[in-house]
Amino acid sequence: MDFTESLMNILSIVTITMCGFQKVPQIMRILKVESSDGISKESLFMELFSYTTMASYNFLNGYKLISYFEYPLLICQQLVLVALVLFFSSQPFTTLAGIFGAYTALVTTVMFKLFPSSILGLCVSLATPVSLSSKAIQLKHILTTRNVESISVYTWLMSSFTNATRIVTILSDSADRLLLTNFTLSSLLSCSITLCCVLFKQKPKAE
User: Fold this and answer.
1) Would you say 54 and 68 are in contact if contact means Cβ atoms under 8 Å apart?
2) In angstroms, rounded to a whole number, what is the distance separating the alpha carbons of residues 9 and 17?
3) CB within 8 A of 15, min separation 6: which ones?
4) Given 1.10.287.3510, 1.20.1280.290, 1.20.58.1480, 3.40.50.10330, which CATH number is that of 117-199?
5) Which DSSP symbol is given to 66?
6) Cβ partners under 8 Å of residue 25, min gap 6
7) pTM for the complete prediction?
8) CA torsion, ordered 119, 72, 151, 33, to nearest 10 deg
9) Angle (deg, nearest 10), helices 3-19 and 153-173
10) DSSP letter at 135?
11) What letter does residue 65 receive in the DSSP assignment?
12) SS3 category, 21
């Protein structure tokens, strides 16, 4: 194993490790301020769709868990985020129970390989644009409301970093243009959200 390959393996491990707690700062931030203002619900659900689709695709195709382990880690954190945002948005318990019941049923059909492959194929083709759109929606929401009190800068900073490391590992491995485009755009959007959070958090102090 040469130096470049070793470095790429280290970057992959770092990426997966960071994904294991990427959403934790955001979860802690919401609990601290006891508010989810400034966080787009649509963006959260779109991200959850993207993570679930990619995890399901890899699972049903029998790929090694290490190659997509970041998705299950992100899904667990995303579910906690969705629950907190809905809770602090004063959503009734029946709504929360219905959403998580439906999601559990969906995951069960995937685990027992009962989910139609044709529908999954369609979902996979939509996963990338949905993931990018979710970040674009969150960015637009921040620019519109200028409310970043409940948004964690650290979560988006880690998102920017992990996307950037994936660009490096893909360039070294397959140089797949589609994947490179996806992670480049994703990294730019995450960086933009991080920058907006920093600027809008500093603005009150400047005034």
Assistant:
1) yes
2) 12
3) 70, 162, 165, 166, 169
4) 1.20.1280.290
5) G
6) 152, 154, 155, 158
7) 0.86
8) 120
9) 150
10) H
11) G
12) coil
Q: What is the pLDDT along the chain (207 residues), one digit of tens a residue?
A: 677 888 888 888 888 899 999 999 999 999 999 999 889 999 999 999 999 998 898 888 888 787 788 899 999 999 999 999 999 988 888 888 898 999 999 889 988 888 888 888 889 889 889 999 999 999 999 999 999 989 999 999 999 999 898 888 888 877 778 778 888 999 999 999 999 999 998 765 444
Alpha helices in 61-176 (DSSP H): 70-88, 93-111, 117-145, 153-173
Give the model's pLDDT for residue 91: 83
Kind plus residue range of the DSSP H or E element containing 25: helix 24-33
**Residue 69 has which token pair?**
């382990």
Helix (H) or strand (E) holding 61: none
Reference 85, options 141, 133, 143, 26; nearest CA is: 26
CATH 1.20.1280.290 fits 1-115, yes or no: yes
Residue pointed to by tokens 């009190």: 149
Number of neighbouring beta carbons within 10 Å of residue 6: 10
Q: Where in the chain is the domain with CATH 1.20.1280.290?
A: 1-115, 117-199
Written as one letter, the residue type at 132 is: L
